[in-house]
Design goal:
Elements (H helix, E strand, L loop, with lengths): L2 H13 L2 H7 L4 H15 L4 E4 L2 E4 L1 H29 L3 E8 H18 L3 E8 L4 H7 L5 E5 L7 E14 L13 E4 L6 H13 L7 E4 L2 H9 L5 E4 L10 E4 L9 E8 L7 H14 L2
Parallel strand pairs: 3-4, 3-5, 7-8
Antiparallel strand pairs: 1-2, 5-11, 6-9, 6-10, 6-11
Length: 290
């Protein structure tokens, strides 16, 4: 027996007629009859007396109906209480967000969160995932960090996304074409594992040495050069989005697995003791990236 059965009994009580009850429940009468029979089998008693002009509840049915009404009222009260708890969650929450994630993903997430928890005072810092955000988290400048790539963190950490790296070009390319075409590389201030991954992938896939490389210090410049046909690049898919001027194909390892870029959320264990932080973590994990 579940809340749909409870509601069914209350509607039958109001209508005293199975045909009208079925119409209100958007069921066929045979379907309603089948559910009633299943309920009677579950309790081992007859719930309704059936007459040519309607139905009435048996003594046992009246008791089951009373319990159903009480349970529906408890469910309603529970929902109201939970909603009231959400409405009164308040306090500061400091977020450190990857600049890339903030640009492409964060705005609708924060909009929904603020609508549900308007009394939480959010502060948002953006920065580099390779240095700034880990330092902010380590130095307690932020409560929760969402950053790109993986990193060593001894406390709570969740993987939110794993997106593919892609070969990006202004026209369709075969991978065998790459050694003869200029390679545009986005170069960050810090050497990351991805730089090493590129080299390992190239060595796995090609016998030829890498082509001439043009290095740029911004992804926007990298995409512009590729868009104008100056060369090809490798980037996480998030940067390309729905850009119809560009063509992509995933970067695949020799074992058939794609090269992936992680987005992770990290925080201290104690952070969950604060309601504003806990509901943010739950919201991210169970509603945004479940």
């Amino acid at each position: 027996m579940d809340d749909k059965d409870w509601m069914m009994l209350t509607i039958i009580k109001e209508e005293r007629n199975l045909t009208k009850s079925a119409q209100r429940l958007f069921l066929s009468q045979p379907a309603l009859t089948y559910r009633l029979q299943s309920l009677e089998q579950e309790f081992g008693v007859r719930i309704l007396n059936r007459y040519p002009n309607g139905v009435s509840f048996t003594m046992q049915g009246e008791y089951i109906l009373q319990c159903a009404e009480e349970l529906l009222q408890k469910i309603k009260h529970t929902r109201e209480c939970v909603q009231a708890m959400e409405d009164h969650i308040e306090g500061p929450l400091r977020l450190g967000i990857s600049s890339v994630f903030a640009k492409f993903k964060m705005a609708p997430i924060l909009k929904e969160y603020k609508q549900r928890f308007p009394n939480v005072q959010l502060s948002l810092k953006t920065g580099s995932s390779t240095s700034q955000l880990p330092d902010m988290l380590q130095n307690r400048e932020v409560d929760i960090a969402i950053l790109r790539g993986d990193f060593n963190w001894p406390e709570k950490k969740h993987t939110l996304l794993e997106e593919p790296f892609c070969v990006v070009s202004a026209k369709p390319l075969e991978l065998d074409d790459l050694p003869s075409l200029p390679w545009i590389q986005y170069e960050t201030a810090a050497i990351t594992k991805t730089d090493y991954d590129y080299c390992t992938w190239w060595q796995e896939y090609f016998c030829a040495p890498p082509p001439p490389v043009t290095k740029v210090d911004s992804i926007e410049a990298c995409i512009q050069l590729v868009t104008h046909g100056i060369g090809w690049t490798i980037l996480p898919k998030i940067h390309v989005g729905n850009n119809r001027a560009l063509f992509t194909r995933p970067v695949i390892w020799s074992n058939g697995r794609p090269m992936l870029k992680k987005t992770v959320m990290a925080y201290r264990n104690e952070t969950l003791n604060r309601p504003a932080a806990k509901v943010f973590v739950d919201y991210i994990l169970h509603e945004c990236f479940d």
